[in-house]
Amino acid sequence: MTDLRTTVVVITHNRRRELLRTLDRLAELPERPEVIVTDNASTDGTADAVARHHPEVRLLRPGRNLGAVGRNLAVREVTTPYVAFCDDDSWWAPGSLTGAADLLDRHPGVVSVTARIVVEPHGTEDPIVRELRESPVPGPPWLPGPALGSFLAAATVLRTDAFRKAGGFHPKLWLGGEEELLAVDLASDGWWLVYADDLTIHHHASEARDATLRRRHGIRNTLWFTWLRRPVVPALRRTLDLARTVPRDTTSLLAFTEAAAALPWILRERRVLPPEVETRLRLLEPTQRASKARRYTG
């Protein structure tokens, strides 16, 4: 069942144990995909452990923590038509990479396929799966699944060339909701993003995470995305909505402060979305307000 259409890209930072588990699972896949790991300047011996235990993996060592841009670095090395992302604490289920590639082969207007996320060790669905499955975004009748307004980098297969053309992940966003900007830029290029319920990725959340920093960056990045791409009135409305709903604590205050400090480059790079893409975002706003799965705002 070897499938040469998809390369798996993983970024990691100081999660040696989790990454080795993920690489073990990826090595067992019947598709036998090429795997590229960007080690974001780990100090726990991650890179050496990968080289020792998984010499078949292409290992990139940029020497500093690039955040999500580590994926961009890896995608430069990809030679397959599709690239599958997963985190260092998640792994694709057998057959799902082939299923995603088949779907993309059959539907040339689809740019990304996001899989169902199963939380380990108990095998339960991640709460966000219901939001994906019940996405309010309208799409053409030929779509093979619900249309999405964004995607989850830890659970998505994309067209390699489209990712590169759109510029990949923005270097300033680093990590935390970094997918949203790339998603709307892909949609602005005429692509559709979909959810596929028959594809699965497993997620065993690492304990080695700074949830406070991730939430701060997530709120900041949401504000940056909003003012980079949304018209003024929706941008104001979204900003006020966030101000009302995020926790009133130091983390949120720092996020808003960082977002405001970036106003000069935000204005330089601001490019308002086409009306049809903006309409999709407006349809998503009620879901975002009610969501209990969007961890960076709660």
From TrEMBL:
User: Which superkingdom?
Assistant: Bacteria
Q: Which Pfam families match?
A: Glycos_transf_2
Domain annotation Glycosyltransferase 2-like: ranges:
7-130
Q: Which UniProt keywords apply?
A: Glycosyltransferase, Transferase
Q: What is this protein called?
A: Glycosyltransferase
In its UniProt entry, the species of origin is given as Streptomyces tunisiensis
Return the similarity comment. Answer: Belongs to the glycosyltransferase 2 family.
| Record keyword Transmembrane present | no
Name the InterPro entries for this protein: Glyco_trans_2-like, Glycosyltransf_2, Nucleotide-diphossugar_trans
Establish whether keyword Repeat is in the entry. Answer: no
